[in-house]
């Protein structure tokens, strides 16, 4: 599946929403000193797979999810962030990406808001 104008628009929305909070000063949170909204920008390759459960998960997406999966609190905060919501990410689908990537060391059973990582 090629890069479509819909994906370009989604990436642009992610950039605009995340950069709107760049000048806020915050302490350490779920993702350290970087806000989950800013971290959500790194999830752009996951956008199609986070909106459609039948979409193929890209290798770039799996690489990012593997990185976030080392800190389940951060992964959940990113998937449930305002940036993800505004970009049309569906948490009930996005939560399945670690399993769809076949990540052996994913945090199975971790509660992520109203969702549980499969």
Automatic annotation (TrEMBL):
GO BP, sorted A to Z: systemic acquired resistance
Q: Which Gene3D superfamilies match?
A: Plant lipid-transfer and hydrophobic proteins (1.10.110.10)
Q: What region holds the Bifunctional inhibitor/plant lipid transfer protein/seed storage helical domain? A: 31-112
Q: Which UniProt keywords apply?
A: Signal
Q: Where would one find the signal peptide in this protein?
A: 1-27
Q: Name one GO molecular function term.
A: fatty acid binding
Report TM segments. none
Xref: CDD domains: AAI_LTSS (cd00010)
Mind telling me what this protein is named?
Bifunctional inhibitor/plant lipid transfer protein/seed storage helical domain-containing protein
| Species, as recorded | Rhynchospora tenuis
């Amino acid at each position: 599946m090629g890069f479509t104008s819909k994906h370009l628009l989604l990436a642009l929305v992610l950039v605009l929403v995340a950069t709107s909070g760049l000048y806020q000063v915050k302490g350490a949170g779920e993702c350290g000193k970087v806000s989950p909204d800013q971290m959500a920008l790194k999830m752009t390759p996951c956008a199609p797979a986070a909106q459609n459960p039948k979409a193929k998960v890209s290798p770039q997406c799996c690489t990012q999810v593997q990185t976030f999966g080392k800190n389940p609190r951060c992964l959940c905060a990113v998937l449930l962030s305002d940036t993800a919501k505004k970009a049309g990410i569906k948490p009930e689908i996005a939560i399945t990406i670690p399993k769809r990537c076949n990540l052996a060391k994913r945090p199975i059973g971790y509660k992520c808001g109203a969702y549980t990582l499969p």
